[in-house]
Structure to design on (158 residues):
């Protein structure tokens, strides 16, 4: 019979520090156990709470992780020495040459060949790219180490 995962041990081995994390200790415990396949009802039992409360803790934790990822992506976009704005109606096939030209100017090497770059842009842009057409504005950044970031500017409110 397999041993039940121990949240404290998992958090310790992963280097969790509640002082520097966007997650509370309870959120980290719930995520650690859920990522190891432990059912919410079992976690609720262990923590002496309801399954609904564990569900709420997990949802909040996942939202906090998502916000942290978005914050990191935003910070990377700000730091990127290469930033290219791609306007709506642009053919996706025209974007790699714009990226490569801007990178050459900045002395930055892109880590992707044109087909990979188009796929990455399309994947990260979500529904802002449809087929070959850029439907909504995109901001493409390339970091000093050649990593590509894709962001959609937030529309201005009037």
């Amino acid at each position: 019979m397999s041993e039940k995962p121990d949240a404290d041990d998992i958090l310790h081995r992963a280097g969790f520090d509640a002082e520097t994390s966007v997650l509370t200790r309870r959120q980290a415990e719930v995520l650690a156990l859920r990522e190891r396949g432990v059912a919410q009802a079992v976690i609720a039992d262990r923590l002496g709470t309801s399954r609904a409360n564990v569900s709420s803790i997990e949802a909040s934790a996942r939202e906090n992780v998502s916000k942290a990822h978005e914050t990191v992506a935003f910070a990377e976009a700000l730091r990127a020495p290469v930033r290219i704005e791609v306007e709506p109606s642009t053919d996706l096939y025209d974007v790699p040459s714009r990226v490569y030209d801007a990178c050459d100017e900045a002395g930055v090497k892109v880590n992707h060949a044109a087909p990979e770059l188009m796929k990455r842009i399309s994947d990260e842009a979500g529904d802002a790219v449809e087929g070959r057409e850029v439907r909504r504005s995109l901001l493409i950044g390339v970091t000093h180490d050649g990593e590509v970031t894709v962001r959609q500017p937030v529309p201005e409110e009037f």
Q: What stands out?
A: The longest strand covers residues 82-86. Residues 80-151 form a domain with the D-amino Acid Aminotransferase; Chain A, domain 1 fold (CATH 3.30.470). The radius of gyration is 21 Å. Helices lie at 7-14, 25-34, 40-47, 51-79, 95-106, 114-125.
